[in-house]
Amino acid sequence: MSYSIPRDVFLLLEEAFNHDREKAEVFAKAIEGSIQAIENQADERITHKKETLKSELYNELRAELATKEFVRAEISEIRAEISEVRAEIREVRSELKQTTLLLKILIGITVFGLTLFNPAFIKLVELVMK
Hints:
rod-shaped, mainly alpha, 88% helix
């Protein structure tokens, strides 16, 4: 984008050069060129700074965010832990079944023992056997 100085500034330059239009135009062109060079240099610096910030931000975010490999490793660990828990649950269920069976046997033996050694039961057996 080219820059041109305002008309009233050009008239002031022309007046400063004792109404010598050519000198005022040359000076105005020099000012316009300087302003344009400053703008170009500022644009380059802004572009460079923007690229630098973008690169730094990308690197920081990349370091902060979970990568695919990290997430996959974490998922694998969790799956392994879930498998271990399931195996433990199976073991507990098996032990619970065994304990339930043993409890039923103990209750049966207790009932049998109480019944067998009960005096009323013995009399009932004697009456049935006669």
